[in-house]
Design a protein that fits this description.
five-stranded mixed sheet; N-terminal domain of MutM-like DNA repair proteins; alpha+beta; 11 strands; Helicase, Ruva Protein, domain 3
């Protein structure tokens, strides 16, 4: 699943091409792509609206329109492609938006997990998300206070989008390794100094991921090269770059989790 750096990369790629574009027609090729509203209402009311900008909130792509907002969540296999009119629609395209410059946007969604919301009140969806980890308002002190209010393991907590927005399996494993924290550490036992190190580690791996245009580890998301700099994720049995101990993989909260048993002692 694309995480914060991958979604940020997509948003940055699309912003210049989509900003100011008027939507002439919407083709909904699989109705269940649309979480809300009803397809007929969507296709009628999105026509004539213009895209004011392209933003990101957590793992959501946010397109503020003239009157409403379009939210896109890629989930497991979604992708956003901008093509010239005349280029054939792909068999996995689920939503097509035709613009006033002879281009169209295709929401490709092979496994059909991705969803789109067309709403006048985006905060009904986005308001449930936790803080943005790269915002200046998200401080080490805030992270520490949030950690103290939970008693579960740190790995699933960081994956909880209501706790912090945008983190996924790859960058959580990388941040915990950088902070020397075991993924099964109880969050309320993390000391203030450890929380500060974790805060810096989260921000560092996310910013490095954005700098590298994200992580490309399969055909779903392409274009990044952060996979060449991963310290633990996907490196089971390979030596830790810091101490040489073989990287272990365990299941935490039903997610494959990579860590160094020496650097990240429980």
């Amino acid at each position: 699943m694309p995480e914060l750096p991958e979604v940020e990369t997509i948003v940055n790629r699309l912003r210049a091409d989509l900003t100011g574009r008027e939507i002439l027609r919407a083709d909904l090729l699989w109705d269940r792509t649309l979480a809300t509203p009803k397809p007929a209402f969507f296709k009628k009311n999105i026509v004539g609206q213009s895209i004011s900008t392209v933003k990101r909130r957590g793992k959501y792509i946010v397109l503020p329109l003239s009157m409403d907002t379009l939210l896109i969540h890629l989930r497991m296999s979604g992708d956003i492609l901008l093509r010239e009119e005349g280029i054939p629609i792909h068999k996995h395209d689920r939503l097509i938006l035709h613009f006033d410059n002879e281009h169209y946007l295709a929401f490709s969604n092979m496994r059909k997990f991705g969803r789109v919301w067309f709403t006048p009140t985006p905060e009904d969806i986005l308001g449930k998300l936790g803080p943005e980890p790269l915002d200046d308002a998200f401080t080490a002190q805030i992270l520490y206070e949030k950690l103290q209010r939970h008693k579960g393991h740190i790995k699933p907590l960081l994956l909880n989008q209501k706790f912090i927005a945008g983190m996924g399996n790859i960058y959580t494993d990388e941040a915990l390794h950088l902070a020397d924290l075991h993924p099964l550490t109880k969050s309320d036992l993390i000391k203030r100094t450890q929380a500060q190190i974790l805060w810096r580690s989260i921000r560092k791996v996310l910013m490095e991921g954005i700098k590298r245009n994200g992580t490309s580890i399969d055909w779903i998301y392409r274009g990044g090269d952060f996979q060449n700099y991963l310290q633990v994720y996907g490196r089971q049995d390979a030596p830790c770059f810091k101490c040489g101990t073989p990287i272990r993989k365990i299941i935490v909260g039903q997610r494959g989790t990579h860590f160094c048993p020496r650097c990240q002692k429980k």
